[in-house]
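Ticket #4471: complex job returned nothing on first submit. Input attached below:
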Amino acid sequence: KAGVTQTPRYLIKTRGQQVTLSCSPISGHRSVSWYQQTPGQGLQFLFEYFSETQRNKGNFPGRFSGRQFSNSRSEMNVSTLELGDSALYLCASSYQGAVEGYTFGSGTRLTVV
Amino acid sequence: AQSVTQLGSHVSVSEGALVLLRCNYSSSVPPYLFWYVQYPNQGLQLLLKYTSAATLVKGINGFEAEFKKSETSFHLTKPSAHMSDAAEYFCAVIVNNDMRFGAGTRLTVKP
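Support reply: We reran it on our side without changes. The output follows.
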């Protein structure tokens, strides 16, 4: 079966712009989580969606938001981009949640210039 | 709060040698623990997970990990390293129903 698909793979944006990243989970998976990965901070949890509801949220500013659609696909939005938002953004899915273990996508590499 | 600490940001072994990557957790209750591997420019791949069914957990690619409550450890091992094992490895624990990761250990395998 198809894995977790993230689009686009690479993005270059200018400071102050906004960006939307997309994630299609494995078919049947209802939980989608987002992580930010940087060399300095490592893997940091952004938020988790389950059946179209945000179930958990990490410690990120309100510029970072997300949503989940009825088909479990999820989008993540970052507004007013800052240089420090440059990172690999990873999406992960599971049927019910983290305790099962996540399947990760290949990520979206965002560069803010 | 539960967390994991990975000892050693870089580990280098020779091909065929034992691989030992260390992970210690802080938890007052039996945790859910995981090991993931990340190859360059890719996402994370689940190697194995501990869910209290057995203390010795076998994973993919010949890796295994042993849960030791007395030492609060969940170290990852592989008897014989292969060049293809070169990657970054992450230990993770469930915190408030979310997965939180250690800082990672980069494994280098020398020919």
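Chain A is about 0% helix and 55% strand. Closing as resolved unless it happens again.
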